[in-house]
Amino acid sequence: EAGVTQFPSHSVIEKGQTVTLRCDPISGHDNLYWYRRVMGKEIKFLLHFVKESKQDESGMPNNRFLAERTGGTYSTLKVQPAELEDSGVYFCASSQWGPEGSGAFFGQGTRLTVV
Amino acid sequence: DAKTTQPTSMDCAEGRAANLPCNHSTISGNEYVYWYRQIHSQGPQYIIHGLKNNETNEMASLIITEDRKSSTLILPHATLRDTAVYYCIVKGFRADKLIFGTGTRLQVFP
Predict the structure, then answer these.
(1) Which residue of A has its CA nearest to B89?
(2) Which of A20, A107, B27, B95 is the most exposed place for a label (fewest CB within 10 A)?
(3) Which pLDDT tens digit goes with each residue over B9-50?
(4) Which of B49, B97, B100 has its CB closest to that of A42?
(5) CA gap B63, B52 in Å, rounded
C-alpha cells in the first residue's frame, strides 16, 4: 500500500511567484492535514480536511495560502505570492478516524525555498 | 489539548533499551497519548498511542501510569536508525490536529 506522497520534494522560487504543492493521501483516508516547519521552529499545523471539506483552517498564516481538496482525494496547497518567510518544509498527513483513535501518516515533505 | 513536558535530549547505547519519559499532568479523561518521531529530513512517523492501558506494537511499548499523568515510550533494543526527535502528544480521540512541541532528541551511539 502506498503511503502519503508529496510533490515536488523541493521547490525554489523567487519572492512574488506562485507555488503549488500537492499531496496524495493514503487511499481511503478521509482526513488530510497540512503542517509546516520553518527553520528553527516547531512543526505547526496549518489545515485539516475531512473529505473535501475544511474542518479546521485555524493554522493558515494568511490569505496568501489556499488549500483545496476537490473530490476528497488529493490536496493542493498554493502560496501566492510567496514571501521569504514562507520558506520551510511543508508536510502532508492523512488518517482514518477510528473509535480507539488513530495515528496520522506523514509524507516526506516538500522543502520550499523562497529567494 | 493538554501540554506535555519532555527532556530535551537523551543518549542510548545501541542494543540497549531507550526509555523516553513524558509528563502530561493536565491530561483529561478522553485524551490519548500519542508518540511520533522525526528522523532527520523525513516526515514525522507515527509510533504508538494509548489511552490508559499499556500498549505494544512492532516498534515500541507505551507505559502509561495509573493516574495517566505521565508515560514512557520504550524502544526495547535501540539501533542507530532510531536516532531521531521523539514527540509525545496528547489529543482527543477525534481526528484533530497534532500539536508538536520540541520533543526529545534521542541519540543512539555505537
Answers:
(1) A103
(2) A20
(3) 999 999 999 999 999 999 988 899 999 999 988 999 999 999
(4) B100
(5) 9
